[in-house]
Amino acid sequence: MVASTSTPTSNPRLSPEQVAKYNLEGYHIFREQVFPEKKFLGLKNCFETILDNLESDVRPESMDVPHFQHPELFEWLFADEVLDLVEPILGPDIALFASHFICKPRGNGKRVPWHEDSHYWQTMISPMEVVTVWLAIDPSTKQNGCMYVIPRTHNSGKRGFSDYYDLKPGEAVFNDEINESQRDTSRAVAVELEAGQCSLHDGRIIHGSEANTSNLRRCGYTMRYVSTRVRQHHEKIGAWHHLYLARGKDHAGNIYGDPTRAYHEMARFRAKHGKNGH
Q1: In angstroms, rounded to a whole number, what is the distance separating the alpha carbons of residues 244 and 246?
Q2: For residues 181 and 129, what is the distance between their CA atoms, to the nearest angstrom?
Q3: DSSP category for residue 110
Q4: How far apart (Å, rounded) are the C-alpha atoms in residues 235 and 49?
Q5: Distances (CA, A) of 169 to 137, 174, 193
Q6: pLDDT (0 to 100) of residue 6
Q7: Which residue in 5, 209, 246, 272 has a CA-CA distance of 20 to 30 Å to 62?
Q8: pLDDT the model gives residue 2
Q9: Phi–psi pair at 39, nearest 5 degrees
Q10: How many other CB atoms are there within 10 angstroms of residue 97's CB atom?
Q11: Residue 18 carries which DSSP code?
Q12: Burial of 84 (0-12, 13-18, 19+ CB in 10 A)
């Protein structure tokens, strides 16, 4: 993935050197606060309200595509503070692909198996060029189950499509994991973040995280973006997922959702049929 040659953003939050390193390593840790304090606290309060109203049978790690039912989240998903982070990588024409609150409660937060996000999206979009902004709602540390990435695996021979084996249902956040022979976890880097900071990672990089057995909750909000030159395969996925035009114009003939309305039926369909944006 390389930065677009189109007119660049007027407020880039990544330097050309940082973009080059991101393209090489597959991730970048952004040590500044993504939002001003008041705006970040607004997002955190929004999350807490959604969490407090979860159905009793829904794990907090599984708060997938909450923006389908809570369009107020577009205040942050479409915010310049975030789009100015991804535009230096994707270019000026940007779509929101997905978002996901992944909240590991203290004491029994489930581990995230080693995986590539692209493994779950291979029938949804092409080309497979996704930038995830992983925003720390809580501090994310080794003690409470922070994310680990294996650098440069997005450019490995598998390029986002390793081989997986099944896990026991309920053992982890996902039910499969990359074969041990295809992941060198000795090279893994811990992505530790203070609340309000973020990391960015390529959708094809191998990553995962340990269970949270600490007494501190660990929540992150993943905001996932693509260039509008990426095409969503509507004919394959049916009516259970939307892209949203975040900035610029469309180039792939995509159909976009309306950020001012809630899609409760779509959310119910996804839950019933096990559809997962991740």
Answers
A1: 6
A2: 25
A3: P
A4: 35
A5: 27, 8, 30
A6: 44
A7: 246
A8: 46
A9: -70, -40
A10: 27
A11: H
A12: middle
User: Cα separations (Å) of 26 from 125, 199, 250?
Assistant: 19, 11, 25
Share of the chain above pLDDT 90, in %: 87
Q: Which domains does the chain have, with CATH numbers?
A: 16-273 (2.60.120.620)
Q: Which two tokens stand for residue 143?
A: 């003690």
Q: Tell me the angle at which helices 16-25 and 80-90 cross, rounded to the nearest 10 degrees.
A: 70
The tokens for 115 are: 């995986």
Beta bridge partners of 185: none
Query: Which string of DSSP letters, residue by residue, matches 147-188?
Result: EEEETTGGGSSSTT---EEEPPTTSSSSSEEE-GGG--GGG-
CA distance 100 to 103: 9
CB 113 within 8 A of CB 177: yes
pTM, 2 dp: 0.95
